[in-house]
Design goal:
The protein is an alpha/beta fold. The protein contains three helices and 26 strands. The radius of gyration is 19 Å and the shape is globular.
């Protein structure tokens, strides 16, 4: 959590655009620090908080699915279809359906341009999918940078070809239609309906019961309904 706050602060305009950050000495310091962090994350247990894997009963797991069973928790009566990938630190609840080709726990999109290089920030967090959730075909849900995990609430549905960024929180009974893109650290409330091909900016907040029409680009927080339920899948 501390490192995650540091990365967020470094990305804020007040710091990222300051003259101090762009001095040669500071750029060298940031570059060295980030490379050291990535090295330690990839080659040691430092910063890692890996969970111990377990499986419930009554599950249907396709043999083509790639699952890190040692570090993935799967509940009861869950179905995981063909070519699904579930990375470590993922927790899957009961009566969950994950359809063909979905990726759970993929690396989040976090890069820093320092000292003339573009460097990734490796993620050590996870994903929590609660009970009765449906994940559509080829949905990608990124793990969080650190803990707390990216989280999908009870009885929510994410339809095909959607992308959920790192650290996103989605509430209960929420529907995301096909092709929705949710930026990192966004928070979506309960009973929200988001239409097809929508894009939500990083760290956006969507309140309970909001309905977002198809192909909407959301760049500011929304706390109330802006459209009556209509052509949403």
């Amino acid at each position: 959590m501390i490192l995650q706050k540091i990365f967020h602060n470094l990305k804020s305009p007040g710091i990222a655009d300051s003259w101090l950050v762009h001095t040669r000495l500071m750029q060298y310091f940031l570059k060295t620090g980030l490379k050291s962090y990535n090295f330690l994350v990839m080659r040691t247990g430092l910063f890692q908080q890996a969970i111990t894997g377990s499986q419930g009963t009554g599950n249907t797991l396709d043999p083509t699915a790639i699952i890190d069973y040692n570090h993935v928790i799967i509940g009861d009566f869950t179905t995981i279809e063909k070519n699904v990938v579930i990375e470590k630190n993922s927790t899957i609840g009961n009566h969950v359906l994950i359809e063909d080709g979905a990726a759970i726990g993929s690396e989040g999109f976090e890069f820093r341009r320092v000292a003339g290089e573009v460097l990734p920030v490796h993620h050590t967090g996870g994903v929590i999918i609660h009970d009765n959730v449906r994940i559509g075909q080829r949905v990608c849900i990124d793990k969080s940078m650190q803990f707390p995990s990216t989280e999908i609430g009870n009885s929510s549905v994410i339809l095909a070809h959607s992308h959920i960024g790192h650290g996103v929180k989605i509430g209960q009974d929420t529907l995301l239609a096909e092709g929705t893109m949710v930026g990192g650290h966004a928070s979506i409330g309960n009973r929200v309906r988001i239409g097809k091909d929508c894009s939500l900016a990083d760290a956006i907040i969507i309140g309970d019961d909001v309905v977002v029409p198809d192909r909407t680009v959301v760049t500011r927080n929304m706390q109330k309904m802006i459209h009556e339920p209509g052509n949403l899948s």
